Amino acid sequence: MAKYLDPKADLTFKKIFGEHKHLVISLLNALLPLKDDERVESIEYWPAEKIPDRTEAEKYSIVDVCCKDNKKREFIVEMQMTWTESFKKRVLLNASKAYVAQTEKGMNYASLQPVYALNFVNAKFLEDVDDYYHYYHLVHDKYTDRVIDGLHLVFVELPKFKPTTFSEKKMQVLWLRFLTEINENTKEVPAELLENAEVNEALEIVERAAFSDEEMRAYDKFWDRVSTQRTYEEEIEETITRRVIKKVEAEVKQKVEAEANKKAEEMIKEAEAKAEAKAEAKAEQQKIDTARKLKAMNVMTIEQIAEATGLTAEVIEGL
Question: Which of 69, 221, 228, 231 is the most exposed place for a label (fewest CB within 10 A)?
Answer without folding.
Answer: 231
